[in-house]
Amino acid sequence: MKTFKKLSILFLSTLGFLACSNDDDNPTPVNEEEVITTLTAVLTPISGGTTVTLQIRDLDGDGPNEPDLTVSGPLVINTTYNGSLTLLNETESPAELINSEIEEEDDEHQFFFQSSNNIATFTYADSDRNSNPIGLEFALITASSAGSGNITVTLRHKPNKAASGVFEGDITNAGGETDIEATFPVTLQ
Amino acid sequence: MKYYVLILACTILNLANSQNCTSKFFGEVHDFHDGTPIVAAAIYIENLDKYTTSDINGKFSIDNLCDGKLTIVVSHLGCETKRLNILISGDTFFEINLEHHFEELSEVKVEGTSNNKLTNTSQEILLKSEDIERYSAFSLGDALKQISGVSSINTGNSIVKPVINGLHSSRIIVMTNGVRLQDQEWGIEHAPNIDLNTAGSINVIKGANALAFGGDAIGGVIVLKPSNISLIDSLYGNTIINGQSNGNGYSLNSSLTKTYQKGWYINGQASIKRFGDFETPNYNLTNTGLKSSGFSINTGFKKFEQGFNVFYSYLNNKIAILRASHIGNIEDLVNAINSQQPLVVEGFSYDINSPRQDVTHQIIKADFYKRFKKFGRVELQYDFQNNQRFEYDIRVGNDRDKAAIDLTLKTHSIRTRLKLDSKSNTTNEFGVSAAYQNNFANPDTGVRRIIPDYYKYDLGVFVISGMRLNDKISLDYGFRYDFNRIDAKKFYQTSRWIERGYDQDFGNIVIEDLGSQLLTNPIFNYHNISASTGMSYKADAYNTFIFNYGLSNRAPNPSELFSDGLHHSAARIELGDLRIKKETSNRVSGTYQYNKKSFSINLEAFYNHISDYLFIEPIGTEQTIRGAFPVWSNNQTNAVLFGIDITANYKINEQWSFNNKSSFIKGRDITREQALIDIPSFKTVNVLGYSNKKWLDFNSELQSELVLRQNDFPNNNFEVFIPRTQEMVLVDVSSPPPAYHILHFQSDITLNLSNKTNLNIGFNITNIFNVSYREYLNRLRYFADDLGRNFMLQLKLNY
Prior knowledge:
Shape of chain B: globular
Largest sheet of chain B: 22 strands, antiparallel, barrel
Largest interface: A-B, 60 and 69 residues
Oligomer: heterodimer
Distance between the termini of chain B: 37 Å
Number of helices of chain B: 7
Radius of gyration of chain A: 27 Å
CATH architecture of the largest domain in chain B: Beta Barrel
CATH class of chain A: Mainly Beta
CATH class of the largest domain in chain B: Mainly Beta
Radius of gyration of chain B: 29 Å
Shape of chain A: elongated
CATH topology of chain A: Immunoglobulin-like
Strand content of chain A: 35-45%
Structural class of chain B: mainly beta
Number of domains of chain A: 1
Number of strands of chain B: 45
CATH architecture of chain A: Sandwich
Distance between the termini of chain A: 99 Å
Largest sheet of chain A: 7 strands, antiparallel
Number of domains of chain B: 3
Helix content of chain B: under 10%
């Protein structure tokens, strides 16, 4: 039957359509651009003594590996430390310094410092274009008695710097999104 | 019974050539489909005022005609009028073929009878143009919610995905003008890229029983069709203008159609929408605006015997996503859940800032059909779709304006269909379809791809048969086979590859080792069988029963297999699983319909057993430099969904009417004996209507919408350590929001401006009492309330 001939051509052409081939170029890998892998806090005692380094390093970003936390040694009681933070993206080689990105948009970023067991207090030592704190530079004053506790460093993107307490470093009303949150166990002696 | 035979034949005599007036014109009238004679047809000669009728064999004859050219007009009640030129030279024989198949009436007549359904024995609901136009300013998902058993899963109020009997996304097929929409429908935050204004009617088929469209529609099929074209010389159009208070938004849609009696037609349509920030009763929803523009052209030639259609559509949606829903880590989520209002509330603005989506969807389609006498109809269609999706996140530095997701999905598909309808009580349909799809994830985003580059090949073959045993009983059954192949190239973080155990099971698919990342080439093949059978029994003029069974299989989508990354709006890491198998659904349903003028009721019950049901659930938390995140992984279990949908209409008198739509559904994980996540809660809508034809065709409705709290939900809550407070905190991501009751009002009048032009003015209020509420199936319910009161004015001009 003529009709059937026509039809079978039609159906066959449908099948032939599947024969499309693909090219075998491999996709290019993506190296995440805004990843912060490493935060290092260098604490230098203002009147001399041992420098203490706190570091968190998470090379696989959102991947399953837990970040590595290191604390170089104990803090000394009744001491004022100058603190300075370094942020790196170590998925790139050489590692990219993220500090400059924060400095360029300093009004949209703020670090917050907290300690448990009242082992330390913090004050900001830098300010953004609106004279609000950033926290890349800060001072840490240890308590007068020995003990142990946690120091938590948080970086918020787009916090509400005008909210109550935020200028003084209270995170409660800060809002924004958390870009870094690292808790370091430290001892005080 | 369906042969309402009346044939009008008109012969116009060319008197100038009337030298011999003893000729006989005789012939036979046949049904085009099966060649059977058409009995008792009347044949009329206009200028001679003569007529005759065809006899029991379809034969007719007219004597004493003069030789020359005749134009005979053969028309048939409920069918297309046929005009033929015939040269009479002596005794002349002519065969006339008419088509009068009952189900084809709707194709030919503008205001056809009620039967526009696509299936005979399924749970199918039809939305007509007036039901659709009311939602002109909204989305497909919003419009479909007027159907009992259809709800929506939302990301805010602009990203609305339809949910049919508890199932959504890849479990639903959306067809628009014959094209199966391929627009990355797997994601909950990916709304169907459909401009509702392109649809003249929408059929919703619950369950996988419309096998012609695909075998994997475990939830159902949504079929959008353009308005019917009538074969008359005409130019008509309509324009709809909406303005609304909530979101200070407007929308405009205009459509113009030119048709010719010969069969040609062309339709053009364009629409724009613009909304600013929406508001709840108590605050602004900062960054929830919408900007949408689209147009379509639909042209072709349409006759009963053959025709073609060429269609192009373009749609761009720019959708802002609630600013407060973008969060950094789990502590931010805890803060958001515990806060009574969003953490970012600013003044009203039309700005569309990050996070936002910018999605463009284009469809090109060409189809052709031809009818063969005494055989059936053959259809061939090709379509191409291009879906470009950009998602913008809140980013810093030079990447601020760079998309975080940039996917291009291209789909070519071709299908042929053959419908054998030459017998009046059986139809058989065969079809083959094939599709080729390519997804390209642009690496320039600087963000690891959540969905990888892939190629996908589909081949489907189906057979459907329908049978009318007698006036009361119809049967149908169908089979379908689908082959799907997915060939992806995906980068995995080496740490994730090992954590998932893929190094053990899939070591052979690694094609490149980059140290911290691995390039892999997963290839999966799926063979799926689907089947459907059903029976409808019309007990008497008022009572109908429909029973139905459907088997369907769905291959996992790219997101379920491959997704791997952080979702900012949910503060969770979502993982696909390469080990995932297809899911299989067995669904039985029963429908009871009672139809009387004053009272009608439609009860639809279903039971859907899904083995290897695919779903996503939390499996623990992972610590990163940003803090802790819950990890949600795609998983499989055995599940059942069952429920009942009720639609009842009661006409109290000429003016007053009452209507109820309720739906009840349960979803259970039968392996673990717990509830399924994201199952709609009980909803009942009661409508009191008043219409009065004398008052400019006034219609009004008071609508009460009651949604109960979902008390049957899986407890996915977890505890997390919050460094700030040095405490463990419970993260309540599971508890559904409380029940809510909201009232709406709708009204409209129609002014006849001329005999061809009318203006319909509609005034609506939604959420009259400005009630604050949150909906369980809105993913932004953690962050903000749903919409407050809205006044809307709609002008609809038909010309």
